Amino acid sequence: MMKDARNNCLFCRILRGEIPSRKVYEDDHVLAFEDINPKAPTHVLVIPKRHFAGLKEAQAADAELIGRCHLAAAEIARQRNIEKGYRTVLNVGPDSGQSVFHFHVHLLGGRRLSWPPG
Ligand code: AMP
Ligand code: ZN
After folding, report:
1. Active centre residues (catalytic)
2. Which residue stretches of the chain are H helix?
3. CA-to-CA distance for 109 and 39, rounded, in angstroms?
């Protein structure tokens, strides 16, 4: 991991408190906060506290953090009573719309979600 990636990474800066966020959940391994441009009544981002760029770049050593991000999303969905239907999303690569290259799980819910996603 190059030091530069962490210095300039938007989500690492949020983790360091250099950029404000509306925190939803935190534990030793992950942080969850409100998406700044929500696409649903619940739109939360869950990120690992250790930087890696995304699913494409993930290594076996990242498996636990990938799981923890999803479990945190499930817990937030439970707390918000949106278990009738929510979605966790990983955008992978520029054509998917991935714009921040620090792994993150989108938690979307609180409304009907169409399938397939666009
Ligand atoms: P993606 O397009 O999958 O890379 O998702 C990045 C998400 O980060 C988008 O949904 C943005 O709205 C969100 N985002 C960008 N900047 C911020 C910020 N400062 N605080 C919270 N969410 C942000
Ligand atoms: Zn980062």
Report:
1. 104
2. 3-8, 10-15, 63-79
3. 9
Atom nearest to 34 CA in ligand 1: 21
Taking the model in full, what pTM does it have? Answer: 0.97
Q: Please report, in tens digits, the pLDDT of each residue of the chain (118 residues total).
A: 566 788 899 999 999 999 999 999 999 999 999 999 999 999 999 999 999 999 999 999 999 999 999 999 999 999 999 999 999 999 999 999 999 999 999 999 999 999 999 8
CA–CA separation, 38 and 72 (whole Å): 18
Q: Which atom of ligand 1 is nearest to the CA of 90?
A: 3
- Ligand positioned closest to the Cα atom of 15: 2
